[in-house]
Each structure stands twice: as structure tokens, then as C-alpha cells.
Amino acid sequence: MTDTPAPDGLDNLRDLGGHRTSDGRTVRPGLLYRSDSLGKLTGPGLAGFTELGIRTVIDLRYPWEIAQTARVPDLPGLAFHNLSVEQQPYDQAALGADVDPGPYLAARYTEIAEDGTAELAEVLRVVAAADGPLLFHCYSGKDRTGIVAALVLTLLGVARQDVVADFTLTGRATARLVDGYRARHGRTPGWPGYGRAPAAVMELFLADLTDRYGSVDGYAATRLGADDGLVRALRGRLLTP
């Protein structure tokens, strides 16, 4: 993962470049970003975003979320795709203190993996075909975004422990995500797990896909149509030669 200064207004942006793959190559920096909602970009933050040179944005949120909290500004030359991968909404902030983030969120991720196959398949196709730098995001840049990051990195050949480690980096933004919730709603989220990204969440989710489909790659091939051609396209675009 390559450290990238986050534009003002964003709490959880990072460049997925720098990860090593099983064949000794590296994810190219400056081509694949993950983030929290770009609807928060204004003024200096928007200027900082444009400096990244991003030409494609995939917004993983529900259309009603975009209507409530805005989308990335309509910049010249920027391709925008709204692919809502989640089909069963839930309110993390309202969960009880006894809910363990690991198994609870892993089960929600599996729901998305099973229910959102059409949208996830299209996400992979857009990433593979994009021209120039691309960014995908949801609201906090943790759950829906984390699922997509895990799938793409796995198909690129990044080791599972590194996929999990990337997921946990959202922990660096947890305090800002909680502060943002408090500013929007005038109260602290009731769930102590809000905004947190413990390794157990991603470990359990990836293990569940492996149990169901033999591997994460097997899930992507079986349910998302990630055939050899698509995987070659992803690797050709995003990996060093």
C-alpha cells in the first residue's frame, strides 16, 4: 500500500499500489484507489482530489445514499459508475455493545457477495477496462469498499495476509469516522465497533468464500464471471511488467 495524502474532507483514502503478488510483480502505484465518500469534497479538498488524476469513480452506495449525501462532483473527463453492491441495508451505529464485529460483519459481507453478484461483476469489468487511475468508494470506505478491494487484490495475486492487512488500515481512520458520525447526527454511535476494521472480519469473510467455492478466485470465477481473460486484463492494467 502506497501512502497518499488525503484531500481535505476525506478520512479513509489510500492507494492500493505497492502490494507484491505471488508471481513477483507489484501493484502499480497511482492507478487504484479506495476511499470514503467523495461527496464530502469541496474547495481545497476537491483541488487535492483532481491532482490525483483519477479518471473513473465507482460509487458502491445505494442511490438513496447518494441523494442524501451527494456524489463526486461532475468533473470534466471523469467517468462515474454507481454500482450498489449491497442489497440488504443495516444500521451499524444502532447495533448493541454485545455484537462482535468479526462474525457479524463477515456475515454481512457474505450476504453482499451472494446478493450483489451482478454489481460486483460489473465492478471488476470497469476496473479491468478503465483508462487511467480509478477510485472506488462507499460511505466510510470500509465495508463495501473493503469487499471490492479484497476481491481485486486477490485476483491480482496479492497474498491473503496482505489483503487482510490492507483492510485493517481503516483502523487509522476510525476516530475520524466516529467524529464524522457525531457531527452529522449529534450523538456518538451506539455500537463500539463502529468504524473499526479488525482483521477477524476479513479473515472470516475470505474463509467463508473459500469454504463455499474452494477459493476466493473460485468464487470470482463461478459467481462473478472472472474468467482467465478478465484476470489477465486486471493484471495487465494494474501490475508492473
Structure write-up:
The protein has 241 residues and is an alpha/beta fold. 47% of the residues lie in helices and 7% in strands. The chain contains 10 helices and 5 strands, in the order ββαβαβααβαααααα. It has helices spanning 43-51, 63-69, 101-115, 117-129, 144-156, 160-168, 174-185, 199-213, 216-224, 228-238, and strands at residues 14-15, 32-35, 56-59, 79-82, 134-137. A 5-stranded mixed β-sheet has the order 1-2-5-3-4, with helices on one face. Strand 3, helix 2 and strand 4 form a beta-alpha-beta unit. Helix 5 (144-156) packs antiparallel against helix 6 and helix 8 (199-213) packs across helix 9 (216-224). The protein is globular and about 50 Å long. The two termini are 18 Å apart. 39% of the residues are buried.
List the helices and strands and how they pair.
Layout: E1 14-15, E2 32-35, H1 43-51, E3 56-59, H2 63-69, E4 79-82, H3 101-115, H4 117-129, E5 134-137, H5 144-156, H6 160-168, H7 174-185, H8 199-213, H9 216-224, H10 228-238
Helix pairs in contact: 3-8, 4-10, 5-6, 6-8, 8-9
